[in-house]
Amino acid sequence: MTTGLALFDTDIGRCGIAWGDRGLLGVQLPEATDARTLSRLAQKAPAAREAAMPDHVRRACDAMTELLRGEANDLAFITVDMEQVPAFNRRVYDIARTIAPGETLTYGDIATRLGDKLLSRAVGKALGENPFPIVIPCHRVLAANGKTGGFSANGGVATKFRMLAIERARIAGHASEDAPMLFDPGLSIAPQRRHR
Q: Angle at CA 107, nearest 5°, toward 103 and 109?
């Protein structure tokens, strides 16, 4: 199997991507340094080595970069390899992937769609294990009452809030026109400085 990994620049910092013959093997949000980002990415795709991106991976990176710049891109065209992902997590990710930029769901919403509201905690655990952040937008899933909930990426909920702010996200459970937004319209979203 052909595998590779690489870094790419976004407005929130240098992200990482790993790929194989059946699709993406992982996406990594920025860590404190490029070396840490690559190290975390290598945990998702241990056999992958740094390589030049094939065209389809470059297109995926371009689409994610545009999304993190505030463009409402649909990333459904990006193929992810979920062969190593547990069946329950796949079901959670399939639902999360339907959340459009600027929209949100709650852990309870996803649990209900899975058939049991009591699965909320398991949904949160699955999202915390998401190997494909951005493509599978776990940042768009909130706790009840519009609270951000947790986020396992570097920076925690601050990173989650920043991504939601870029998308000008609205809190789940409200009519679109009346939904409170999760950002301050005067907020300046400047790129983070990266250490190489």
A: 70
User: Which listed residue (138, 141, 164, 166) is catalytic?
Assistant: 138
**CA diameter of the chain:** 49
Is-contact 135 64, C-beta < 8 A?
yes
String of DSSP letters for 75-95: -TT--B--TTS-HHHHHHHHH
Closest listed residue to residue 162, CA positions, set 173, 151, 178: 151
For this structure, is 15 an active site residue?
Answer: no
Domain map of the chain by residue range? Answer: 4-67, 87-166
CATH class given for the domain over 4-67: alpha beta
In this predicted model, which residue has the larger pLDDT, 169 or 33?
33
The CA dihedral of 18, 24, 165, 68, to the nearest 10 degrees, is 70
pLDDT digits (tens, 9 = 90+) for 64-100: 999 999 998 899 999 999 999 999 999 999 999 999 9
